[in-house]
């Protein structure tokens, strides 16, 4: 990454930057380019020239004004002044005056930045971002420069034996093995570069690559293989730097949205092999994308660390997952495994290792272990509750004394799936909803458009459906505006024009009028949708209750919301509908894609893999359905809370008081 | 193998049995079936019913009379009497009276048995036979019967972890790994047979297969990958028994007969990969054949040990062999390597190991190491000279104190290739030639026909060319009949009708008249052919001289002729033309396919692999062309010896005296 301007570097402050339409926000060190800031957040901006300012593809727009939702005052002056290239482009009319090249403009203050569709590398919104943790760099894969003198008639050894001797003498690497693929490259590598070789060694025991000349840079990939999304992060194994990230839809989505359907799709070895290949091909494609982004070859990627839930983990290995779908939900393998890339059909260096972190149980996967590795509940006294909301809800409750885990049958409602107008978090999805509790006026915002629905013409909105973050908003706001009661039932007596009955007589609430949509009909939230959210949040809450009871505690010291979904929802509103136990709003944090961070940690620091193996063995998996109180907890928890009674920390905030007028302006 | 009849079993004697037209001969224990005897010699007889006497495909013919060449008096009474099946077939006219089912007829005395073409499984003659050595059975691969109780909600481990625990508790197998292929079979194997599993373990460290139920038999394959022929032996890894053997032409033969042309054919990675695949596919096919023969699946073959010369070894691994063709002839890898079958494209158990024995140098391969392992020169005081005549001639000279090896540039003449009428040892090839030194009458015998040419009508012979064994005969007999002198020149003055000049005026000697051939013209041996044989045998002799000089000895204590060719040539006549130093005719032995035997030893006894690795490091490779005396030795050795002076042990035998009248009857 390029270093900041000298005059800017003196400013040690950091500023809040929010990238729209994804809504991804972070504290960014002053002087960072917008493109680097976006990259660190996993937001991919087109960059053919890799940041040299010559391709002009990375342009973004600075939004002006005060954005109360994020408490950001954004202004063009909060960026470094135009570079010559940019002024030139604007003069020639090839760039708008409010646009900047994100690789040239550096952060000097708070910003709300809009990334137009054409500047984004992928059209699916990347929501899995890389955290900003400090990671020790001590990788499994290292490159060594070696000079191998040419063979002579007198040398009584083969080339490989001579090379192994040199590795032992000069690097202390004894009893080395060599992968067949690497062995095959030895004759060619030797012929060039005067005997100078770069030898790539895995785990101090196996040569996995030999190239002619000195090429010391090494790269690895961390992968979070989700039921819905696959996120991949390319890292330098020397500096630990996250160089690029990319994500793709898990192509198995076409074969079942949820875990159980996915298992059913693996019926027979041919179908299983096909499902395996889908993911392998997508990973190969992501590797290709990432390699191109930083101008390396896929053969330069010499290790992958992958985390996944147990079903994705088994299918990725080509192991029949059926046993995971029936009592006793037994995995075929739990411990971490190391497999050659070629054996899994991943097109990186064929001899590269794919490290799959250990899984805990049938419903608690290595993604959960990775979250624990990243958040470290086992390293401190504070009792952490970590909630990873993916297609399934996974919980960890623990501290240095003990760790418990559970899997909650949330269903996909919290991700916006299986609702009347539910959709994925892609452009056009309603992502925020506000209802004025006095006037009951409603406004919303869609992904891909920075403006609230009440600030622009109806035909400029083009809403397509409702995604997960808005689902939480809707239930919380309906409750706050007393449009639903604490059992979740619509309060028909209120008489809102938005609350009506469909042709079958069922109650529904209009979120977007047909004129505001791109689908030509009203987008509604139904009584059934509210029930689905109640079941999902009830499962999470009751799961946490079971774990707290096992632990003998009333509430956690900290609640960490992990996962792509966790980073986009409004935490206050999630608390208001009772999604998790209260530990004080200041102790409830969104930690982004902690599973991906855990994978990256294990990629960069080999010793942390041992820690992960220990975590997987330490964590006690609690099968919720086997707990005698879970069912009653679950039923109770489907109710919507009375904020004052149940959530002391909400007193004076959203649900406890009328909100401030500004919020509903 | 079926056990012999009780009444026959009491006879503890053994008898000489010779199988025609291959000429393969051995001492066979009385009571052994002809089919088993043939099988042990690597002669494959068709056997669809696997010896039950029901398929009637294994019929052979008993030749009657005294066969002086082998000193055998063969008679139908020297076999057990007809079984009911056989009498029935003869009655019905479905079998000739002189035919027997080889799976039913048991050896009771000396026999000359003819195996008709239709009873042989392959049409190429299998000349690589299995030796009769005693081998300790302590294989790398073992099967274990395990009972794996079903998983429960309480079991906190995956299936594999539970299985690994049982293997450790019950079998003492700690810290086990599992191959991905085996892991994939675990769910299915578990579902059946009430939790009883058979687990195949390699080297006490890796599970390579899991099947449901108890299936304890394990199988391995020993392979001798020659430049021309690939021989494969299927062995039981429990009993050590050689169950079946098969051979095939090395399909690379179409891309160069000799080593140097073969190297040239590997130009570019695509061509190299194609050459690799050819051999891999042929090995897969041989595995399929062998598996069918003993009614197992190819997945039951759980290890292969392979030996080859260094070029074949490198190409088989997919390693560019070009460096082996130019000074300093340096191999890319010497030490033994273990590679998964799937990584080499061999269709046996995908997770099976392919063990390639170590090579010594660019021109001395693992076949040479295997020969030393089988013959054990390093284990005794006697100075052994082992000559392995393949497409190249490889020498080992050594005893417990020291071992030397060399590779002689013999060229393919000794195998019958590159001669005017040279051909491979397949049916129709002239394999034996005799010239009466008094009358200068010539007779010959072809493969596929047990009778000498002077005993049958000319049009029943159908000679097609001359193979390696006849080449030695011809030169020795021409010399003995004084048709050539000691410089190898034809003695034109003798005035034989067979000695004539071709249209270009070059001298040639007619071996078979056109009427005796299947090609419609005279089959001749030319002056140039004699020169080629002189160069080949001169190289072998001079190579041995260099090694003896390094050792400080005049002659070896023992000469062992290994290789397919070694087992068919007439050793006395080979000595008469000066192919190797004299150590007394009684100390010159043909040891058959010792390389194949060495591979089988390493397959069956894991500890012998360590011994092989030591041999490869111990043997000092002598580059003949670097020896200052080699060239002069070579020139001298191209001359044909005066038997009385140069070969004391031949005094009174072939070259020293007129032969016995019977020999030339």
From TrEMBL, chains A, B:
InterPro entries hit by this protein: 2Fe-2S_ferredoxin-like_sf, 2Fe-2S_ferredoxin-type, Beta-grasp_dom_sf, Corrinoid_activation_enz, Raco-like_middle, Raco-like_middle_sf, RACo_C, RACo_linker
Gene Ontology MF terms in the entry: iron-sulfur cluster binding
Protein name listed in UniProt: Uncharacterized protein
Domain of life: Bacteria
SUPFAM superfamilies on file: 2Fe-2S ferredoxin-like (SSF54292)
């Amino acid at each position: 990454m390029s270093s900041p301007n000298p005059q800017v570097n003196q400013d040690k402050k950091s500023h809040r930057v929010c990238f729209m339409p994804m809504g991804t926000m972070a504290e960014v060190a002053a002087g960072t380019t917008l493109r680097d800031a976006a990259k660190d957040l996993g937001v991919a901006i087109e960059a053919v020239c890799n940041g040299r300012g010559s391709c002009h593809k990375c342009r973004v727009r600075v939004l002006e004004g005060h954005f109360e939702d994020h408490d950001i005052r954004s202004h063009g002056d909060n960026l470094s002044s135009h570079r010559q290239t940019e002024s030139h482009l604007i003069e020639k009319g090839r760039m708008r005056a409010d646009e900047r090249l994100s690789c040239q403009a550096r952060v000097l203050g708070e910003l709300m930045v809009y990334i137009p569709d054409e500047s984004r590398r992928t059209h699916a919104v990347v929501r899995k971002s890389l955290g900003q943790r400090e990671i020790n760099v001590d990788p499994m894969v290292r490159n060594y420069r070696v000079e191998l003198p040419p063979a002579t008639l007198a040398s009584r050894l083969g080339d490989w034996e001579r090379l192994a001797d040199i590795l032992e003498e000069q690097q202390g690497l004894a009893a080395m093995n060599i992968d067949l693929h690497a062995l095959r490259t030895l004759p060619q590598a030797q012929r060039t570069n005067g005997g100078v070789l770069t030898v790539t060694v895995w785990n101090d025991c196996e040569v996995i690559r030999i190239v002619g000349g000195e090429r010391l840079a090494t790269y690895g990939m961390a992968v979070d293989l989700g039921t819905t999304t696959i996120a991949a992060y390319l890292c330098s194994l020397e500096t630990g730097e996250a160089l690029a990230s990319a994500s793709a839809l898990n192509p198995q989505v076409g074969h079942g949205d949820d875990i159980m359907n996915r298992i059913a799709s693996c019926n027979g070895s041919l179908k299983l092999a096909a499902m395996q290949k889908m993911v392998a091909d997508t990973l190969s494609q992501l590797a290709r994308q990432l390699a191109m982004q930083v101008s390396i070859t896929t053969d330069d990627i010499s290790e992958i660390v992958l985390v996944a839930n147990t079903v994705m983990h088994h299918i990725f290995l080509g192991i029949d997952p059926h046993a995971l779908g029936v009592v006793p939900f037994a995995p075929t393998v739990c411990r971490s495994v190391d497999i050659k890339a070629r054996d899994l059909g991943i097109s990186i260096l064929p001899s590269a290792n794919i490290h799959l972190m250990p899984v805990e149980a049938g419903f608690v996967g290595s993604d959960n272990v990775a979250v624990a590795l990243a958040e470290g509940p086992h390293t401190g006294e504070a009792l952490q509750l970590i909630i990873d909301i993916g297609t399934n809800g996974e919980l960890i409750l623990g501290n240095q004394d003990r760790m418990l885990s559970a899997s909650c049958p949330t269903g996909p409602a919290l991700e916006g799936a299986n609702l009347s107008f539910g959709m994925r978090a892609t452009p056009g999805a309603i992502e925020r909803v506000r209802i004025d509790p006095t006037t009951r006026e409603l406004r919303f915002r869609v992904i891909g458009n920075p403006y609230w629905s009440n600030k622009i013409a109806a035909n400029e909105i083009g809403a397509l459906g409702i995604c997960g973050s808005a689902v939480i908003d809707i239930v919380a706001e309906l409750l706050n505006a007393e449009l639903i009661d604490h059992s979740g039932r619509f309060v028909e007596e209120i008489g809102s024009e938005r609350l009506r009955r469909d042709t079958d007589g069922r109650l529904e609430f209009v979120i977007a009028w047909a004129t505001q949509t791109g689908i030509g009909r009203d987008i509604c939230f139904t009584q059934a949708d509210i029930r689905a959210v109640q079941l999902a949040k009830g499962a999470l809450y009751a799961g946490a209750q079971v774990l707290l009871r096992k632990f003998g505690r009333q509430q956690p010291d900290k609640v960490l919301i992990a996962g792509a979904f966790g980073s986009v929802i409004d935490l206050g509103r999630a608390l208001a509908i009772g999604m998790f136990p209260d530990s004080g709003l200041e102790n409830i944090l969104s930690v982004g894609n902690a599973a991906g961070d855990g994978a990256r940690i294990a990629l960069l620091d080999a010793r942390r893999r041992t820690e992960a193996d220990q975590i997987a063995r330490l964590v006690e998996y609690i099968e919720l359905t086997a707990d005698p109180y879970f069912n009653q907890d679950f039923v109770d928890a489907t109710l919507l809370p009375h904020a004052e009674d149940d959530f002391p920390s909400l007193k004076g905030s959203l649900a406890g008081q009328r909100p401030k007028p500004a919020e509903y302006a």
